[in-house]
Amino acid sequence: MTKEDWESIERKLGYPGAGAHLKVDGYAVTLRVMREKMKMVIAVYVNEYIKGEWLVNDCDIRRRFYQCSKRSLLTAADKKKLAKERKSVQKAVRERMTYYSYSPYWNSLRSLKCHFIKNNESIELCEEDSSNG
């Protein structure tokens, strides 16, 4: 995709309910602006779906299109106590108390774009029938 194509997507996603259609490595991907909790996000639909199994189980779609967040089960107080331990103990506890969550929602087009480019070979903008410029 060209810089102009990405700028076109940014313009298309300028308001709630707006969408853009892409063809990414053979997948039909729709980006849709929507409200998630109290903020606007870009939802990623793959072949017209967001499936829970893609969020829970490791799969090609999750790796290609969804946002990964690293989270800790440790509270601020736990981390403070842990700082007094040996480095090897700190590392082991942090690893055990860390988990990853995945989401089809992106807070910014910039981070979505970077992830898509990094994890996919071919990204094409699909023009909708109703918008001829």
Characterization of this structure:
This protein has 133 residues and is an alpha+beta fold. The chain has a domain at 3-66 and 104-126. The chain contains six helices and seven strands, in the order H-E-E-E-H-H-E-H-H-E-E-H-E. The protein has helices at 3-12, 52-56, 60-65, 76-82, 87-96, 109-119; strands spanning 19-24, 27-36, 39-46, 67-72, 98-103, 105-106, 123-126. The model is unreliable at 129-133 (pLDDT under 50).
SSE topology sketch:
Elements: H1 3-12, E1 19-24, E2 27-36, E3 39-46, H2 52-56, H3 60-65, E4 67-72, H4 76-82, H5 87-96, E5 98-103, E6 105-106, H6 109-119, E7 123-126
Antiparallel strand pairs: 1-2, 1-7, 2-3, 3-6, 4-5
Sum up the structure in keywords.
7 strands, two-stranded antiparallel sheet, disordered C terminus, 133 residues, five-stranded antiparallel beta sheet, alpha+beta, 6 helices
Percentage of residues in strands: 25-35%
End-to-end distance: 18 Å
Element-level helix/strand string: HEEEHHEHHEEHE
Query: What value does the Rg take, in angstroms?
Result: 19 Å
Number of helices: 6
Describe the main β-sheet briefly: 5 strands, antiparallel
Helix content: 25-40%
The strand order across the widest sheet is 6-3-2-1-7
pLDDT under 50 segments (min length 5)? 129-133
Shape descriptor: elongated
Broad structural category: alpha+beta
- Tell me the number of strands: 7
Average pLDDT reading: 91
